[in-house]
UniProtKB/TrEMBL annotation:
The chain crosses the membrane at residues 29-46, 101-125. It comes from the Bacteria. It is found in: Endomembrane system. Its main location: membrane. Keywords: Membrane, Transmembrane, Transmembrane helix. Residues 31-67 form the DUF1232 domain. It is a multi-pass membrane protein. One of its GO terms (cellular component) is endomembrane system. This is DUF1232 domain-containing protein.
Length: 127
């Protein structure tokens, strides 16, 4: 059980390090965009597959998020990643980092996706 807790903590640290890397100009633009999506999905309370669906609900948390983090880590220059990990560890040791801007952005994205889904369904039903 301790190994799982360590891995979850490491995953949170990596996610926050990637969040810090998103704002670093030394990271290529495509890596920053992909990292932004991965971080937003990891921190979002809304999942692609709802957790209430047995087994499948947790697959995105167990597979998609770690896979996305692994891909982003490969895109970020190693020296930048080391610095971002150090900053993330320092920030986490001082308390749980929060960002209202990130929360607003995530909620805005989900609202926009919800509106687009409603418009799409309404268009399909009119046919």
């Amino acid at each position: 059980m301790q190994t799982w807790k360590q891995r979850v903590k490491q995953l949170k640290n990596e996610t926050y390090a990637i969040y810090i890397a998103c704002k670093d100009p030394r990271v290529p633009w495509y890596a920053r965009v992909f990292a932004g999506f991965v971080v937003a999905y990891a921190f979002s309370p809304i999942d692609l597959i709802p957790d209430v669906i047995p087994i499948l609900g947790y697959l995105d948390d167990l597979i998609l998020v770690p896979l996305g983090i692994m891909l982003v880590i490969k895109m970020i220059p190693p020296d930048v990643l080391v610095q971002c990990r150090e900053k993330a560890e320092a920030a986490i040791s001082q308390g749980k980092p929060t960002s209202r801007i990130a929360a607003i952005l995530i909620v805005g994205i989900w609202l926009l996706l919800g509106i687009l889904a409603v418009v799409w369904v309404a268009g399909v039903l009119k046919r």
